[in-house]
Amino acid sequence: MDGLPAKYFAFPPYRAESLGGDKGWWGVMNRNGLNVLTFPAKPGAVVTDEQHAKQIAAKWNETKKFTYPPDTYAAPVTTRLTDAQMAKYIRSQRLVGDRWVSPIVLLGGGQSAAAIDAWVEE
After folding, report:
1. 34 assigned to some structural domain
2. Is 27 a residue whose pLDDT tops 70?
3. C-beta separation of 79 from 110 below 8 A
4. What average pLDDT does the chain have?
5. Which one of 67, 87, 99, 114 is at 20 to 30 Å from 80 when CA atoms are compared?
6. Positive or negative, the Cα torsion across 42, 47, 49, 54?
7. Which residues pair with 94 in a beta bridge?
8. What is the domain extent for residue 26?
9. Between vectors from CA 48 to CA 47 and to CA 53, what angle results, nearest 5°?
């Protein structure tokens, strides 16, 4: 399993370092002492054994540029509300118990603006 330094934290030199005491957990630290070990094939994994950590650190110290997989996050498509729509939504809110709530149901897919426009103010 090949590791990559965490994106935006690839600052050499790298060194292998024990993290788990007697658990045998090892990480690969960047120049700032931050464990930057990641495994693209196993998201969330940030430790390995001593032998692999030392091999990874040696390999990274010889590497000039890392190739990262594309980010998988896609921002949701949103329809921006106008200032007037947002003001109307804020004016619709009432204090119920200890929370501010609105009778206007905000819907996804660009339907929130239509719901706000359809609401009749008191």
Report:
1. yes
2. yes
3. yes
4. 89
5. 99
6. positive
7. 101
8. 4-62
9. 105
| Residues 46 and 78 sit within 8 Å (Cβ to Cβ) | no
**CB neighbourhood size of 1 (10 A):** 10
50 in the same domain as 14:
yes
Q: With residue 37 as reference, give the H or E element that holds it.
A: strand 37-38
Contact assessment for residue 92 and residue 102, using Cβ atoms and an 8 Å cutoff? yes
d(Cα 49, Cα 51) in Å, to the nearest integer? 6
* Shared domain check, 55 and 19: yes
Count the domains in the chain: 2
Within a domain: residue 69? no
- What pTM was estimated for this model as a whole? 0.59
Rounded-to-integer distance, Cα 63 and Cα 86, Å: 50
Would you place residue 40 in the very low, low, confident or very high pLDDT band (cuts 50, 70, 90)?
confident
Q: Mean per-residue pLDDT for 58-62?
A: 96
For residue 71, tell me if it sits in a domain: no
**Residue in the block written with tokens 């990874």:** 56
The verdict on residue 77 lying in a domain is no
